[in-house]
Structure formats: C-alpha cells, structure tokens
Amino acid sequence: MLAIQGLTKIFPAPAGEVVALRDIRLEIGPGRLVTFIGPSGCGKSTLLKIAAGLDASYEGSITLDGRPIEGPSVEKGVIFQEPRLFPWWTVEKNIAANASLRDAAVRRRVGELIELVRLKGFEKAYPSELSGGMAQRVAIARALLRRPKVLLLDEPFGALDAFTRAHMQEVLLDIWQSDRTTMLFVTHDLDEAVFLGQQVVIMNPRPGHIRRVVSVDLPYPRQRTGAPFQEIRGVVLREFEKVEEAPVPDPGAGI
Ligand SMILES: Nc1ncnc2c1ncn2[C@@H]1O[C@H](COP(=O)(O)OP(=O)(O)OP(=O)(O)O)[C@@H](O)[C@H]1O
C-alpha cells in the first residue's frame, strides 16, 4: 500500500516560493493501476519524484507498506519519457544493468522480461537499432528487473506516435495483468488516462492539488469507441475543462 498524507512540496524561487503540491492525500492499494492527469505545472512529476524517493524534502508523509519513502530503492521502479538507455550496451545488458548476465538467475529474469515486453530476438541489439517504442519497452523491462512493489511512470509514451502509443498501452496492460505491480502513471492524454487507469486522479495547478478522483469501473481490454468508455471520458473531460478554466492567481502571491 502506498499511502500519502498531507503531502506538501514547496520550491524556493527568487520571486517567492512555488507550492508545487499542497496537502495531497491518497491511498493506493497493492496491484492498483492509477493514472494522474492535469495541466502543465500541477505537480504530477513532483509527486512521482517524491514517490520514487528522488526528492526527500517535503512536508507530510508518504509510505510504502508502512515505511516512509526517503530515498530510491529496488522497491520502486521509475520510467521517464525518454528511455535513458546506455547506447553501448545491448538490450539484455541494458535490462540487467548492474546485475551480471553471468548469473543464471539474472539471465532467467532478463529472458522472462524480454518475453514480457515482446522483444524476443532483439536481445543482442543496441539502442540505436531500436524504434522509440522498443527502446521504451527495454526501459520498462529494466525497471521491472528486481520486481519492484511499485512502478512509477512519468509520461512514458509521451514522445511516441499515436499508433505506437496505443500499442504500448496494450503492452503495459499485459505486463500489469501478468505481474500486478502497483502502477502510478502520469499522462497529459485523457484517452490514455481512462484507457489504462482503474482510477484517474485529476490534478489542479497553482498550487498543485487533487481536484477529483474518478473510478473507471470498466473491464479490460477496454473499447475506446464504446459508450461506457466515452461516458467516463466525458466525466474526466468536464473536470479537466474546469481545471483549465480555473482562475490563475496573481503571480505575486507566489503560488
Ligand atoms: N526544481 C524546481 N525548482 C523550482 N520550481 C520547480 C522545480 N520543479 C518543479 N517546479 C515547479 O513546481 C510546479 C510543479 O511542477 P511539475 O514539473 O511537478 O509539474 P507537472 O504537472 O509535472 O508539469 P508538466 O506536465 O509540464 O511536466 C511547477 O510550478 C514548476 O514550475
């Protein structure tokens, strides 16, 4: 269980402090897939970084299975918009990273992951030989190597074309369904948020806070063109429009 209580994050800035997150409260049970959506600057990446243990200066509490998150650990896998692969390493070495491929258990796990992310046959390829979607699948496999309890994805498909993106969403759902890793997935894309998430967390900027959490009680695989999907998409869209229309406070107020 990932439990967030009263989480507030303030960045000092020359023109006054920036309240990137204010009083975030959220509980995400094991194996859940939760998407986060909101306009630029609403604190989505900041929240993910804190959950990843990459930023430990915050107020409030964030715990994973009861233990405070204070730094990076193998319990948390992180995936960014760019795959951040080592160009001089093969696919399998990028997945194993610091673990040795001479170790049979590591080789077995890397093999399983290559199957899972549908890269069989590309074990010895280098990143320059991969498409954007394939490279991002390597990054996902690498993040899963040590069986993290939670996978944190910050717009992982944001740089991909629409076709590849739709394919990657299906790959990710396959992974989640076979592995049941808890996933927090940040996106700008409303369809993606509703297609993937069991819950969609809609965030508001200035200061970043949760506006509403919408449950998506639709079975997987979801049909984007179906009426139930469109209905929930409409609910999220209406909330999202309210977020966009929210008045911008005087920048002098520092929030
Ligand atoms: N290192 C930093 N120093 C100062 N302010 C920061 C820093 N990082 C983020 N911020 C501010 O905190 C707020 C939240 O930023 P964050 O990047 O988390 O938003 P976001 O919702 O992920 O935006 P985007 O969708 O554009 O990536 C913004 O106002 C941003 O300018």
UniProtKB/TrEMBL annotation:
Q: Name one GO molecular function term.
A: ATP hydrolysis activity
Task: List the Gene3D superfamilies.
Answer: P-loop containing nucleotide triphosphate hydrolases
Q: Which InterPro entries match?
A: AAA+_ATPase, ABC_transporter-like_ATP-bd, ABC_transporter-like_CS, ABC_transporter_ATP-bind, P-loop_NTPase
Q: Where is the ABC transporter domain?
A: 2-232
Q: Does the record bear Cytoplasm in its keywords?
A: no
Keyword Transport in annotation: yes
Q: Which residues form a coiled coil?
A: none
Q: What is the protein's given name?
A: Alkanesulfonates ABC transporter ATP-binding protein
Source species, please? Paenibacillus pasadenensis
